[in-house]
Amino acid sequence: ALGAVALALAVGALLAGSLSRPIRELTAATSAVAHGKLGAQVPVRSNDELGRLAASFNTMSSDLARSTNGRRQMTADVAHDLRTPLSLLLGYTEALHDGKLAGTTATYGVMHDAAQQLQRLVDDLNTLALADAGELKLVRQPAQPRALLERTAQAFAAKAAAQDVSLSVDAPESLTTTMLDVDPDRMAQALANLVSNALRYTPAGGTITLSAVEAGQGVAL
Hints:
By secondary structure, the chain is mainly alpha-helical. The chain has helices spanning about 1-35, 50-95, 105-130, 145-155, 155-160, 185-200; strands at about 140-145, 165-170, 180, 205-210, 215, 220. A hairpin with a 2-residue loop joins strand 5 (about 215) and strand 6. Helix 1 (about 1-35) packs parallel to helix 2 (about 50-95), helix 2 packs antiparallel against helix 3 and helix 4 (about 145-155) packs across helix 6 (about 185-200).
């Protein structure tokens, strides 16, 4: 009886140790994440429930760290993009206020363009906030892929010409009968962001091509 009790105690101690160790590690890692140490990992020591729990925690922690880093980078990018039009507006308004610059149509045109750029950035931030909150509504309706591209090309035709950049649409005639179930306004917004970035980094004499091709059961733009 004494031997059986001693053996039971020994086995119980081993089981308790094998259970408590990963639980302590998970508790410590959870506390680290709660205190801002994103991406904390715990060793996966088995394939049982505790092992799967540890693996799930590691995946969650990595995703959280990646998402947070992405948001920080996005905030830095937005701050950078906002700084340019704001600096331009402040410079022009200060010069106008001090009488160092005469108010001309060209001057007001530059200021208006800067204000429009700020408005677009604010609209993008609002769209992102709605998407994160799950409140971004899509108004789906049939739309031709070539028509979406031509609409975008027409919107940026003048800017592309001013920068000596060729902007063209390349889509086969077979797509004229293909209809996509999309939100045309949101698609136009996404395409406009892409073309705007392309114009920013394409040198004079360069080419930007908006293309559409059949891809399986869908269309790749």
